[in-house]
Amino acid sequence: MTDDYVDVSGFALRKRQPNEFAPDRPLIDQIAEWLDEAGLTLATLRVKGLRPAGVKINWPDIVMDREDLAWLRESDGVLPPPAADAIARLDIVLGWPAMIEDLRHRNVVNKRMIVNPYSGKYRWEWRSLGRLLGIDHKTAQAWHRQACGALAKKIGRT
Description:
By secondary structure, this protein is an all-alpha fold. The protein has helices at residues 27-44, 84-93, 103-112, 126-133, 137-155; strands at 5-6, 13-14. 41% of the residues lie in helices and 3% in strands. A hairpin with a 6-residue loop joins strand 1 and strand 2.
C-alpha cells in the first residue's frame, strides 16, 4: 500500500497525511476536532529549557478560584506526549484563530483550547465559559460552531 501513512509514534495507520482532511466527513466537524486536539497537544507538548534554571523556591501554588479544584485528577502524572501527526496538525491549527474575524467567536475558540496537561480537561467548560462571557452556554457552543464554519469557508471547502 503505497498511499498509506504510518505516523512515527506507531499508533495509527491512515490513508492520508496527518494534515489532510477526510473527504467523506463535514469539514466543520473536522475543524472542531482539530481545535480540540490542538489544545490537548499544546498542553502535553514536552518543552525544555524555557524556564530560568536559577534560584528555585518551594512555595505552594495558590488556588485562586474554587472551580480550579475540580480541574485536577487523582494522579499527578502528566498525560503522555503527543504523537508526531498531532504536532503536525498543531502547527496548522495554531494559525486558525487569527483567521476568525468576529472577536467574540475568536475568544470562545481560544478559551476552549486551554487544556489541563494533567487531567486533559478543558479549563473553560461550556457553562463556565458562558458565565464568563455573560451568555448562555448554548450560545457559546453556537459561536464555536460558527467560528468553525467561518474557518471552513476560508480554508476552502464546506
